[in-house]
Design goal:
The protein has 350 residues and is mainly beta. β22 and β23 form a beta hairpin. The chain has three helices and 28 strands. It has one domain: Methylamine Dehydrogenase, Chain H (7 Propeller), CATH 2.130.10. Strands 3-2-1-28 form a four-stranded antiparallel sheet, with no helix packed on it.
């Protein structure tokens, strides 16, 4: 009887723990993906399944090329093939910023500033970065680049935007002035398809099959040539030690820029179009032309989850930032039990 009472008490306190998780998790969305099938889906890694089959807030019948979470994880920005940008309340699946015409061509890249005030976007049909100020409700156009801009990313302090262009140039821009920063550029041999930025370095992936590491504080540059085909996407781990890259060769390469260690993640049956790290840096999510979203364990290099549901190429994936708040608690348990983040959550559901 005493044992039964203990079980009831434990269950009660466990329920209180779940109820104490911020309301932002009521939607249960951990990962979002956008596809050429004209849908944006939400996935839950605990349940291992799709929880939002189609976000109604997008209000469009156009392919989704790019998405970005706000720093607080409450909103998601996305661009249309007609050059428009919109903002969605992910918790309520409601559009809070109507479609705004920003570009003359498809929006290929979009990014939130670290403080959430700005949304930057670019189109491969234009040579300028556009900056939407959510507070002032205006749009600024940056100084023109020599060629069209395919990808952008904010620096962690929000003072700089990095861009990758169709002529292979990687450049840095001052957010306040909209002008290119002097002597802040590097070159690939072909179009730069993706850029990512940390506090001291920039990662870029190109059609030349290379991934470039560029420390813009001391101008150190390293090149990785592990891919056998064009590189579509790059991402930097939160601890800044790893660069992940997704390629047309169907693989994900993990490059530790400190130790020069490499890991190859295999499993996709089509080109890998997008990669992103989890907020704790222990996992990677990827989207592919094989229509699947997959989650990978960085430590082991193995596939942890596979999501199906899209009917066409997945162009973009993003991991919800606020997952870190919930993940910190689980990771403390992981350290005690020696289990992985996903293993704990799967066991919890059983």
């Amino acid at each position: 009887m005493n044992f039964l009472k203990k079980q009831i008490i434990c269950s009660f306190f466990f329920l209180l723990t779940l109820l104490s998780v911020p309301a932002v998790y009521s939607m249960n969305v951990d990962i979002v993906s956008g596809s050429l099938d004209k849908t944006m889906k939400g996935w839950n890694i605990t349940l291992g399944q799709e929880v939002i089959g189609k976000f109604k807030c997008i209000g469009t019948t156009e392919p989704i090329y790019t998405i970005a979470f706000s720093p607080d994880g409450k909103y998601i920005a996305f661009g249309s093939t007609k050059g428009k940008v919109a903002l969605c309340d992910i918790e309520n699946d409601k559009q809070i910023e109507a479609w705004i015409k920003v570009h003359d061509g498809p929006v290929y890249s979009i990014a939130f500033s670290p403080d959430g005030q700005y949304i930057a976007s670019s189109s491969m049909f234009e040579k300028s970065i556009k900056l939407l100020d959510r507070k002032e409700k205006n749009i600024r156009t940056f100084e023109k680049e020599t060629r069209e801009i395919a990808s952008i990313a904010f620096s962690p302090d929000g003072n700089m935007i990095v861009s990758g262009s169709t002529d292979g140039t990687v450049s840095c821009w001052d957010v306040k002035t909209g002008e290119k920063m002097v002597n802040q550029s590097k070159m690939h041999k072909k179009r730069v398809h993706s850029v990512a930025c940390t506090t001291n370095y920039i990662a870029s992936g190109s059609m030349d099959k290379e991934v470039m590491y560029w420390n813009y504080t001391n101008n150190e540059c390293k090149i990785s040539k592990k891919h056998t085909d064009k590189v579509y996407s790059v991402a930097c781990s939160p601890d800044r030690n790893w660069i992940a890259s997704g390629s047309y060769d169907k693989t994900i390469q993990l490059w530790n820029i400190v130790t020069n260690q490499y890991k190859q993640l295999c499993g996709h049956e089509g080109a890998v179009r997008s990669v992103a790290f989890s907020p704790d840096g222990n996992f990677i999510v990827s989207g592919s032309e094989d229509k699947t979203v997959r989650v990978w364990d960085v430590a082991t290099g193995t596939e942890s989850k596979k999501f199906t549901g899209h009917t066409n190429t997945i162009m973009t994936v993003a991991w919800r930032p606020l997952l870190k708040t919930f993940g910190d608690q689980l990771n403390r348990n992981r350290k005690r039990k020696g289990k992985s983040f996903l293993d704990l959550k799967i066991k919890h559901e059983d």
